[in-house]
Amino acid sequence: MTSSHGRGLHLAAAVDQRSAYDADSYVELARLAESGGLDFVTLDDTFARPGPDALAVLSRVAPATGRIGLVPTVTVTHTEPFQVQAAVATLDWVSRGRAGWRLDVSTTEGEARLFGRRHAAPADALWAEVGEVAEVAAQLWDSWEDDAEIRDTATGRFVDRDRLHHVDFQGSEFSVKGPSIVPRPPQGHPVRVVDATEGQARRTAARYADVALVRAASSAQAGSVRAELRASAEKFGRDPDTLRVLASLVVDLGDGEHAAEPGHGGGGPRQTAHGPLYRGGPVDLAELIAGWHGDRTVDGFHLTPVEPRRDLERLVNGTVALLQHRGLFRTFYPGSTLREHLGLARPANRYAVTGGAS
Amino acid sequence: MTVRRPSRKQIHLAAHFPGVNSTTVWADPRSKSQIAFSSFEHLARTAERGRFDFFFLAEGLRLREHKGRIHDLDVVGRPESLTVLNALAAVTERIGLAATVNATFNEPYELARRLATLDHLSAGRAAWNVVTSSDAFTGENFRRGGYLDRADRYSRAAEFVDVARELWDSWTPDGLSRPFAHRGQHFDIAGEFTVPRSPQGHPVVIQAGDSGEGREFAARTADVIFTRHGTLEDGRAFYADVKGRLAKYGRSEDDLKIMPGVGVVLGDTAAEAEERAAEIRRQQVSPQNAVLALEQIWGTDLSSYDPDGPFPDFDPVPDSSLTQGRTRRGDTVAMAEKWRALSREKGLSIRQTVIETSGRQSFIGTPEAVAAELETFVRQDAADGFILVPHLTPGGLDEFVDRVVPLLQERGAFRTEYRGTTLRSHLGLPDPAGKG
Ligand SMILES: Cc1cc2nc3c(=O)[nH]c(=O)nc-3n(C[C@H](O)[C@H](O)[C@H](O)COP(=O)(O)O)c2cc1C
After folding, report:
1. pTM for the whole thing?
2. Is the distance from CB of A112 to CB of A106 less than 8 angstroms?
3. A10, A299 in Cβ contact below 8 A?
4. Cβ–Cβ pairs < 8 A, chains A and B
5. Tens-place pLDDT, residues B258-269
6. Residue B207 Cα: closest atom of ligand 1
7. I need a surface site. Which of A160, B166, B178, B186 has the fewest CB within 10 A?
8. Cα nearest neighbour of A163 on chain B
């Protein structure tokens, strides 16, 4: 099994803001993150609390940015898998290959009442369904081969229908015929991000995610979850090196250059109800990031600033600048797609006939 | 605030992004990607440069099939509408952004939220074209599966729009969210809407559908109708019919704009325009497309027929499953008889007959003649405006915007500048009163 040794460091940031509905503030945050060369930004979403549709916001951000990956949360419990995969594929088209998708569930009866279609269900059952949605999405992204559009004037055919495929997916809660209405997106498969914190969610992440987020308060803890995820991915028949494991930290950089809580080992995170919280200065955060990454317990970090404008600015101009200075983080984007930033290959199409006779 | 009333009835214009039908001449060397964002950007910006009211995207949720195989002759595949429009909001400033979204295979809470979000992100330019087209065929892609006959589709659509408006009204203009509860025939939902009142109050609602049920639904609910009744005679009848239905819902004639989808072909002379139009029709109705049209009417495999030859001498067989994913109703025997009669009378082949009978309404001529004719249609109450359906992506509107729009402006028939910032203001629609 290959380790993370020699691999790049991956950094992502959340651009969540409380009750912001205008486009400009999101564009500003995403551009800031892009100026730091971050792999991607995330925007969280649920049907239960105030906030705009996250995929819509990042679609609006796409033409206003050039390189940074765009990863909205799209819940899959009350939504239509066919529509969700089409929307995510479209985000990939409008961003020219920068789309990701953070899959999540809706567990409360309150959310169920907004739809009136089904009752709330236990998280493990819903996470199993997430796996089915991830699977059907990938099949639908493949349902058009890359070169299906032929524009053959001699025969009058716009597409080669032998390169379009019904997926005939039969899940436990839904079925989909296919093919997709959207041609295969630029990345082949937009990047799938899953919070692998517990239970079935972790298994679903090991099987389907390109990026798994773990909420660990120490390097050792992150390392053990990462090892478990990689082993589990291998059991599902995956090459574990196709899975990036990022530690999720909530960061509060409002306390100056150094940790306000020395008891936490130079600003080490502590567990809170919202996940591990790092509080301290940008320099110490760089230290922490370099340390965990040096331990090879994580492939990178997903950071959620408590004060988006302030903390993202400090993150980019402080922490990231320092990591760049030390040669630990890129200073420019060598590629243009999110998969390229993450060092992940463009997936082959499962339906494509490989070589020789068809 | 006093609004200066234009002295003449103003034309409304919208741009349809072409695709997924035989209108699009994809074989033309000027035809570019149907999916790349740059194509959408070009067409939307062109329309905005022409001061159009809105940019319009159609929708289909299952690829069409013919004789059990995916239809391969026309443009296939398109991005998801709302996502594209959110991206277009970043590269345009004033033009309305209209998405066709099915009311059968979506849920009110989610869709109302996506539409309100687009309205926020575009600062008040969102519109929703409510379509209901659904069949078991389309349903196979959704949790619900295939269901709903036409009457139920419209009753669901009507309740859907009502619920969406309840949700949009659930926040007061000063930012207070109130819980909602709705229990009806199709929906039983409750909770709190997560998006504050949007810049237009309600996104603009468009309807496309032609049956009695469809017209009634539009009269009760819609701000705009997208119709195929594009000729002067047809348009006047449709216009009178639909506007006549408004009073019983307490609405005035100005509250609903009627906009047929039309094509435009220009030339420096009338003859040149006619020639170009004929050439476009030949490209739209390829030999293969002519046979396809024949099969769709006859309901049977006619691949052995020569498109340049005569019609079959037997009557259509009723088989509705030959073509799926496309609405084609009406009396096929009568249709076949009409085609055969025309072919006999004028000595036309199959393909020539299809070319002759199946085009949508087009305005063909010099820019001056087209401008005059468009204005005439509007002044004679055959339409309030037009949804232009170009035959080329993405440059199909360039010539219209460069050559016809200035003439309409000179005639005082079309705005020279946007007066407001929202789509409602372009359409001259009142802001919906929030139920306080
Ligand atoms: C001009 C026009 C455009 C339409 N565009 C769409 C479309 O983009 N997607 C769709 O699913 N249905 C579309 N429809 C179908 C209608 O929504 C409706 O389902 C269909 O016309 C049948 O309803 P009716 O019996 O009332 O005409 C369109 C209809 C018309 C008249």
Report:
1. 0.96
2. yes
3. yes
4. 182
5. 999 999 999 999
6. 17
7. B178
8. B70
